[in-house]
Amino acid sequence: MSNESEISRRRTFAIISHPDAGKTTLTEKLLLFGGAIHVAGAVKSNKIKKTATSDWMEIEKQRGISVATSVMGFNYGDYKINILDTPGHQDFAEDTYRTLTAVDSVIIVVDVAKGVETQTRKLMEVCRMRNTPVIIFVNKLDREGRDPFDILDELEKELKISVRPLSWPINIGAKFKGVYNIYEHSLNLFQPDKQHVTDRVEIDDIIDHTIDDAVGEDDAAQLRADIDLIDGVYPEFDVTEYLDGQLAPVFFGSALNTFGVKELLDCFVRIAPSPRAVQAEERIVTPTEEPFSGFVFKIHANMDPNHRSCIAFVKVCSGVFRRNETYKHVRSGKTYRFSAPTAFMAQKKEIIDEVYPGDIVGLPDNGIFKIGDTITESEDLHFKGLPSFSPEMFKYIENTDPMKTKQLNKGIEQLMDEGVAQLFVNQFNNRKIIGTVGQLQFEVIQYRLLHEYGAQCRWEPINLYKACWIESEDEDAMSAFKKRIYQFMAVDREGRDVFLADSNYVLQMAQQDFPKIRFHFTSEF
Ligand code: G4P
């Protein structure tokens, strides 16, 4: 097969949702269709149980499992599908944001009873920043839930994207009878089944009397009225609008009952984008280019303290990655040869010789890589990553074993490279501040510093509201600002100026008093 056809058959995507909407269940069902697993229940959830918030060892054990399920590749018909898993726990949201830099599209799962929830909203913002094409799956139709029209309105309003239903439910909850596939003009009757695909009733169109026989006259009439309304309100589905990230097709179903999932998958492989051109700082890189290039979007540490090794997950952007070839690590300028790159197929890790654009290759890493690093055949390319977001929690990190200062500093550096948290150094007192998106990271860092680096630390509270990156062309304004808030000035790891605001009020006052200074809440601007 030519490179071009290998590329065009690839679909690399992530499933995202608020915890409990059904992401794990849907992932499993997709694997079931791909023949990657044979019975439901085979995928170990990397979902972090809500009860485990203080027992982070348990969480890491669960996260350990997720190395295998981090990328799930399988073939479905002529397509090669890669599902990139994302952690369900919101304290690991940064991991999810970064994974979204490596996908070409996204499926969002929404619970029909709960509608759009916080985490969904946040993840959608990240998709919007990158114009990632999005398909929405409204799940749990077998349970009582909200009116589907209400759900559509909410999706449009809350996710700030136009929607177009491509399937439509006939009742929901106890009276749920099935879905009408608007895209293919077929009717699927609901039979709860956790393992098998339900049968399809072929119909000519919406006026076909077979529908009345299948669901009863009243429901058939209601369905016709609904479809009429949908056709009147929503414009025809336009695939280019979807590919531009402007329009989200919506499907209804029940992941647990394997219902509506095949329709979703069949439509997904047809319309979802294959690997697309990627913007590097220097130029646009297209997947069909001959020379290999790729970037690290995730680093997964081995939790075994005796083997401090990691796996760097590299998304191939162009060319073909080949085992034992020499590639350039652009940040260091050094070249490396990888003799044991791994592919991720159906939960198994195996050594692979060639990796195509869209695929993810796992490279053993003993401290070479940092999130966002680019690897190329020779060219100096820098792929634009996803910005780091302003952390939401802050603590001073203090060394409690002065004999191990070096180990502590090395440990902090490496954990920051892995993207576990962000480090700022306060310019006033020179103390190190760690910023995270969740409480759990502090426990993770403390534990890992001790077990992997033999360093001990303690956390001290600091009252901060937000860290924001600041810049200005006006040097006088900048120095006046720094003078005024000198106690709250810090630098990040790249040496950029960061303002540590201790309250929303202080931040607003600063913005008001210093209009010539720009305040950024993400690290890329
Ligand atoms: P997540 O990864 O998004 O966090 O969600 P997950 O798939 O784990 O699903 C959350 C809960 O919702 C699970 O129940 C799952 O069985 C259930 N669920 C998923 N899809 C459907 C559906 O279509 N209908 C119904 N009725 N339930 C669904 P749980 O009791 O929390 O977990 P488990 O013990 O079943 O694993």
Q: Give the overall average pLDDT.
A: 86
CATH class of the largest domain: Alpha Beta
Main beta-sheet strand count, sense and barrel state: 8 strands, antiparallel
Task: Give the helix level as a range of percent.
Answer: 25-40%
| Total helical elements | 14
Q: How many β-strands, per DSSP?
A: 31
CATH superfamily of the largest domain: P-loop containing nucleotide triphosphate hydrolases
Looking at the structure, the CATH topology of the largest domain is Rossmann fold
Beta-strand level of the residues, as a percent range?
Answer: 25-35%
Q: Can you put this structure into words, describing what you see?
A:
The protein is an alpha+beta fold. Helix 11 (405-417) crosses helix 12 (439-453). The protein has three domains: 8-68 and 87-272, 3-Layer(aba) Sandwich (Rossmann fold); 279-376, P-loop containing nucleotide triphosphate hydrolases (Rossmann fold, 3-Layer(aba) Sandwich), CATH 3.40.50.300; 393-520, Alpha-Beta Plaits, CATH 3.30.70.3280. It is globular, with a radius of gyration of 25 Å. Residues 44-56 and 64-68 have low confidence and may be disordered. The structure holds guanosine-5',3'-tetraphosphate. The site of guanosine-5',3'-tetraphosphate (G4P) has 19 residues, from helix 2.
Throw out a few tags for this protein:
Rossmann fold, seven-stranded mixed beta sheet, binds guanosine-5',3'-tetraphosphate, 525 residues, alpha+beta, Alpha-Beta Plaits
What's the SSE blueprint?
Elements: H1 3-8, E1 10-17, H2 23-33, H3 56-69, E2 71-76, E3 79-84, H4 93-99, E4 105-111, H5 118-129, E5 134-139, H6 148-159, E6 162-165, E7 167-170, E8 178-181, E9 186-189, E10 200-202, H7 210-215, H8 217-233, H9 239-243, E11 247-252, H10 261-271, E12 278-279, E13 284-285, E14 293-301, E15 310-318, E16 321-322, E17 326-329, E18 334-337, E19 342-345, E20 348-351, E21 354-355, E22 360-365, E23 374-376, E24 393-399, H11 405-417, E25 422-426, E26 432-436, H12 439-453, E27 457-461, E28 466-471, H13 475-484, E29 489-491, E30 497-501, H14 504-513, E31 518-520
Parallel strand pairs: 1-3, 1-4, 4-5, 5-11, 6-11
Antiparallel strand pairs: 2-3, 7-8, 8-9, 9-10, 12-13, 14-15, 14-23, 15-22, 16-21, 17-18, 17-23, 19-20, 24-26, 24-27, 25-26, 25-29, 28-30, 28-31, 29-30
Helix pairs in contact: 11-12
Bound molecules: guanosine-5',3'-tetraphosphate.
Guanosine-5',3'-tetraphosphate is lined by residues 17, 19-25, 45, 47, 88, 139-140, 142-143, 254-257.
